[in-house]
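Quick one: structure tokens for this chain, please?
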Amino acid sequence: IQSQCLAASVDGIVFEKYKGNPVITEPPPDGSVDFRDPRVWKHNRKWYMVIGSCKDGKGVALLYCSDNLREWDYIGVLAESDGSLGYMWECPDFFPIGDKYILTFSPIGVSGRKTFYIVGDMDYKKAKFKWDNIGEVDYGFDYYITQTFLDRKGRRIIIGWINAWNWMPWWKGFGLPAAKNWCGAMSIPRIVELDNKGHLKFKPVEELKILRDFHIRLEDIEVKAGLRKLPEEVGGKSLEIIAEFELKSCKAVEFGFNLSCSEDGSEETVVLYNVKAGELHFARRRLDLGSEDVRTYKLGFNKGENLKLHIFIDIYFLEIFADNGRVCLTNNLYSEIRDINLFARDGRVKLVSLDLWKLKSIW
């Protein structure tokens, strides 16, 4: 049975465990033995904590309150699944943006979907959270268990785990992560904002620009059927790409980037836009895990708008931002990118501009 314990630090490096642990010995009746991932915040001189759990096969977020971080009172269920949002909610986070409150969580039991957010109103006097909007933080395969913080500029920053599932016992020692001795990575920091329709949108923090190094810019290029290989000097293990394609004059059925991950082309990653369907596709072929995976999301454009893609590549990881930050796709690649190609199928598309930077290491 999982419990909650306290540890304190004055420097964020050395922590001392509270001698009175655990501060919460067992889950409440509204929870279960899956009772983990506390998220603590302060509001009007009181501490609050949300904990992920499950009840009767449905995920729940449980709310607690304290005056001193040591004695905690159980308040009740902050939010729960309606049956379609998984049977266990991991790593819940609860925070305000403007006059709205956001609850994020990663559900277990929802195939292929990693992290949700729900938007609503919080009444602290009644300890009630009433939500009316739901969405996904990231539509990729591998953006999991996010957490946020408020920085000194007042920005809400979110970071997720780009996880490789070999931490699961039955995958131990399997695939490229085991061979390379890693298990996922942290995503780039993103600013969280709320649009006027109650949906979250995300954009990379501006501080990432200090990593930019060698730069090339291409303008007004017609991409025809077939592949157009970008100059060899753009290659590298860590890259940032900002591309804009003109949709008004587009005659291609599909267009985008082909990222080759092997000499014979058997492993590749494709980021493409299907013009007729208005859908952004991400596809990866990864022979080491024996599968071919595709993610699709329908984008919304106003008349005359262009398609803009902002892409970060870091050896085995790819993060894509589209639709003004309303759509993010984050994925493991499992194979290092060798070449970057532009392509168009059954027609042509105008590449308005492409900026590409090699990125320096953060270390």
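The longest strand covers residues 212-223.
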